[in-house]
Write a structure and sequence with these properties.
The protein has one domain: 2-enoyl-CoA Hydratase, Chain A, domain 1 (Alpha-Beta Complex), CATH 3.90.226.10. The chain is globular, with a radius of gyration of 17 Å. It has twelve helices and nine strands. It is α/β, with parallel strands linked by helices. The strands form two sheets. A six-stranded mixed sheet has the order 1-2-3-4-6-9, with helices on both faces. A three-stranded mixed sheet has the order 5-7-8.
């Protein structure tokens, strides 16, 4: 891997670490490296579980708006298709995948965590999907993953109001399975990874495939045909203006 994703294996436990500058924001390079690393992990039969985490203060803040706003419609469409393929590859990974969110996981970062079998968040970290606030819809596949993952009574709140959650609130709505303070986070992650890794790999893989089959089939059938609606929203004057404001705010914070 190059510097955007680090892949390490220790005693049968793989760790995928997002390690890109700009807080691990998602860009084409990160998507390509994450897809390559996931494929490498799937080929290694000695891997018993994989942890998806982020280097630095953030798990992932979502799409790299500064870089992606420079793409034209065709290039942005290609990026979306590649990102969707990466998400589906993670979502169908046959062995346990645990998201360890030591820092904020919002927008596309939260989307990445939804591919995991189990999501652990640090109590201080924000988790949420704010796409509607920016002015873009969820890609179809993301909507399907979200609907399966979270509490049905909280789905509209999460998706349509674009709220962020911390700690027990993230657990209560279903965006995380457990939340821990800094002093207990690492031990909790290690305990859960060990619990998943102890399961029979064939039984786990088949059961996981059965549980997610309906969602995966819908994504494969309809995801690509819905890309145009995302692009229409992304390239609207209103959304481009909001993206420009966000980019300016982020640049000002770095000064």
């Amino acid at each position: 891997m190059n510097n955007t994703v680090q892949w390490n294996v220790d005693n049968g436990i793989g760790t995928l670490t997002l390690s890109r500058d700009n807080g691990n924001a998602v860009n084409p390079d990160l998507v390509a490296d994450l897809l390559e690393a996931t494929q490498e992990a799937a080929r290694d039969d000695t891997i018993r579980a994989v942890v998806l985490t982020g280097a630095g203060k953030l798990f992932c803040p979502g799409l790299d708006l500064q870089e992606l706003r420079a793409l034209d419609r065709d290039a942005m469409g290609s990026f979306l298709n590649r990102f969707s393929a990466c998400l589906l590859n993670l979502y169908t990974f046959p062995r346990p995948l645990i998201a360890a969110m030591r820092g904020h996981a919002v927008a596309g970062g939260c989307v990445l965590s939804l591919t995991a079998d189990w999501r652990i968040v640090a109590e201080h970290a924000l988790v949420g999907l704010n796409e509607v606030k920016v002015g873009v819809p969820f890609p179809f596949g993301v909507s399907m993953m979200l609907a399966r993952a979270v509490s049905p009574r909280k789905l509209d709140e999460i998706a349509l109001l674009g709220r962020n959650y911390k700690g027990k609130d993230a657990v209560e709505v279903g965006l995380a399975h457990e939340a821990h303070g800094a002093d207990a986070f690492e031990a909790a992650c290690a305990e859960r990874v060990a619990e998943f890794a102890d399961k029979d790999p064939r039984a786990f893989a088949v059961t996981k495939r059965f549980l997610r089959s309906a969602t995966v089939e819908r994504i494969r059938a309809h995801d690509s045909e819905c890309v145009g609606e995302f692009l229409d929203a992304w390239f609207s004057d209103e959304t481009q203006a909001r993206i420009a404001e966000i980019v300016q705010e982020l640049a000002a914070r770095k000064k």
